[in-house]
């Protein structure tokens, strides 16, 4: 299985760090890259081919940066996983797909289930916010393979403990979700 991993927002935070929590110096771009890099190592250990790209250009809108969807489509990825961190003070994980019917929906359900099964036992406040269709997300709309965008938790809530201390568990859960889907 060829897995394309897209940690959200701009590499190094310039020009777009994603959401931030100034109180604890956390930036979404850094957390997403940490989870994506670890996830890629677990997937490679499981025999997958992995390509990772974090870039400010998702679908051609910022030509000075490498284009995420073009790279994934040209590489012939079997699955596409965009990794993000939420903001707004809620708790838990939610995973978006183009449509809850079909392969993208199944991939989303596999990743969502693994995240909740892995993290809720550590912190019961971590909620299963579910799988949701969001066809207007450009990484979901413009990719040619089953694609998901996973929001692993909230940067500005009590999820911060999980996000900072259990990044390895988050990465493993995403990797297991992808391999569950492929079986
Ligand atoms: Zn984001």
From TrEMBL:
Gene Ontology terms: cellular component: outer membrane-bounded periplasmic space
GO terms classed as biological process: peptidoglycan catabolic process
Occurrences of domain MurNAc-LAA (ranges): 69-179
A Pfam family reported for this protein in Swiss-Prot or TrEMBL: Amidase_3
Molecular function per GO: N-acetylmuramoyl-L-alanine amidase activity
Entry keyword annotation includes Amino-acid biosynthesis: no
Key words of the record: Hydrolase
Top-rank taxon: Bacteria
Protein name: N-acetylmuramoyl-L-alanine amidase
Organism of this sequence: Selenomonas ruminantium
């Amino acid at each position: 299985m060829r897995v394309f991993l897209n940690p959200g927002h701009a590499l190094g935070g310039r020009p777009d760090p994603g959401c931030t929590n100034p109180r604890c110096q956390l930036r979404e771009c850094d957390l997403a890259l940490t989870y994506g890099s670890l996830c890629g190592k677990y997937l490679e250990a499981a025999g997958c081919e992995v390509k990772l790209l974090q870039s400010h250009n998702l679908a051609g809108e910022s030509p000075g940066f490498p284009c995420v969807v073009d790279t994934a489509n040209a590489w012939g990825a079997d699955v596409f996983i965009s990794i993000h961190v939420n903001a707004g003070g809620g708790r838990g994980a939610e995973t978006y797909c183009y449509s809850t019917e079909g392969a993208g929906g199944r991939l989303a359900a596999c990743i969502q289930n693994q995240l909740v099964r892995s993290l809720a036992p550590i912190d019961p406040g971590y909620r299963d916010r579910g799988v949701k269709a969001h066809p207007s997300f450009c990484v979901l709309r413009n990719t040619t393979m089953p694609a998901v965008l996973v929001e692993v938790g909230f940067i500005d809530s009590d999820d911060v403990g999980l996000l900072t201390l259990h990044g390895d568990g988050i990465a493993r859960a995403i990797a297991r979700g992808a391999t569950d889907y492929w079986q």
